[in-house]
Amino acid sequence: MNFILGVIAAIGAACLGVVALLGELVIFAVAGISHIFRPPFYPRLVGRSLMEIGFFSLPVVALTALFTGMVLALQSYTGFSRFNAESAIASVVVLSVTRELGPVLAGLMVSGRAGAAMAAELGTMRVTDQIDALSTLSTSPMKYLVTPRLLAGVIALPLLVAVADILGVMGGFIVATWKLGFNPNVYLISTFANLRAGDVVSGLIKAAVFGFIIALMGCFNGYRSKGGAEGVGAATTAAVVSASILILALDYILTQILFVK
Amino acid sequence: MSTPKIRIRGLKKSFGEKIVLDGVDLDVMAGTGLVVIGGSGTGKSVLIRSILGLVTPDAGVIEIDGEDVLRAPARRARELRAQIGMLFQNGALFDSLPVWENVAFGLLAERRVARRDARAKAIEVLAQVGLAESVAGLSPSELSGGMQKRVALARAIASAPAIMFFDEPTTGLDPIMGAVIDGLIVDCVKRLGSTSIAITHDMASAQRIGDMAAMLYNGRVEWSGPAPSLLTETNPVVAQFTHGRAEGPIKMALRK
Ligand SMILES: Nc1ncnc2c1ncn2[C@@H]1O[C@H](COP(=O)(O)OP(=O)(O)O)[C@@H](O)[C@H]1O
Ligand SMILES: [Mg+2]
What we know:
The complex is a heterodimer of chains A (261) and B (256). Chain A has 261 residues and is mostly helical. Chain A has helices at residues 2-34, 43-53, 58-81, 89-127, 130-136, 141-178, 184-193, 197-223, 228-257.
């Protein structure tokens, strides 16, 4: 009996912990967003974060997209040739990449790279009192550290995904024409024949949301970290894991919302 | 009697079960330097962090210029606290910025200096702590511990604050560098006529930078008085601390 009560108490405590954490996260996000509209603004810091999140993630995202497009063409050929439906390969590649794989894979890669780096940087600033030092120097740490990163995340991810879309299609094109013997013109025409603006736009909207999530989880975990180097390490891990899970969960929800037949 | 620059009454703060401050009373008169002594973990940093608003106390009153910062509107509390310059225990320099931007940070944030003049102004302040122009462009990580402390001091005094806090300014430095930093602190405080609170474990340092002294023990101010009388004080807690004796009323908890 005591054992069962103990288990129930533990489950209850865990639930309360999750709810409290969610509340803190929401308050943190709202504070970060609210500073977007209140001066002073830090355009230089937004620029710096854009470089870190966007520009320096470009090689990783580009390679991921390229190979994904290539594999996609190859795999769908295996399946579709059994139904003599090879002509659908171009559509499958472009739709999967723009609607789904571009944003999700770019999101996961950027969260591993930039989200982790953000958590480590803010975590180090926290445990070495740099965040406290900011507020003693008439500067709001939320405004100075968090808001520029949130903005940069929302701007950078759609740009990265646009690049990923192009490279993913290119990967499919390379495999289809060189390895599977497709006519380049025919492949390109059937790529664009079935593509609608909505497909690309829905992918870019997803990307903006994922960019926000990556920056938010990176900042939130870094900002709250405590307990020296170990705490910073834990914050970094938590940032990547939570951002990745949220990206996959939100991907389903957004797909449902943005669903087009 | 005039209002103290800083007046603290019944300040309490616990972290979870752990009571750190248990009713601290303290007055710091304008233009005087107070040294706070006490064993590691007695809440000296928590005390000054509470005044700065970095820690929210559970109860008590903190007045700056006679106004209660804990109950003032957020904006007013920020204004009152903006007159405090803080030297953090480990410097807390921004390692993503060069030395000069660290020093000019507060001035730029308060728009008291234009960006194009900031570097020259920073070099001026660096000179006051004995640093040459050549360090201005370096990153904090390229400096020795003593130089980092000087840069952190320059950052704290750049906006000529009316109140200055120094959290263990000489801990981790060799005795000579410690004396140099103490000298710089005394210079800055005297030149600006500021009110200061310095935390220290170092009795020599306490004598150099303090007019008054207070000892924190068991979450309260155990003793306070003129800094010179620290060394002759007969209160057993103070005497044990100032003479560094293992035997006495202060029992060091066995740490895990
Ligand atoms: N943010 C915090 N969360 C939990 N405990 C804290 C926090 N800050 C300080 N403490 C605890 O309060 C006690 C006093 O800390 P501090 O004021 O830093 O001591 P010191 O007198 O050495 O400066 C320590 O036991 C420390 O563990
Ligand atoms: Mg301390």
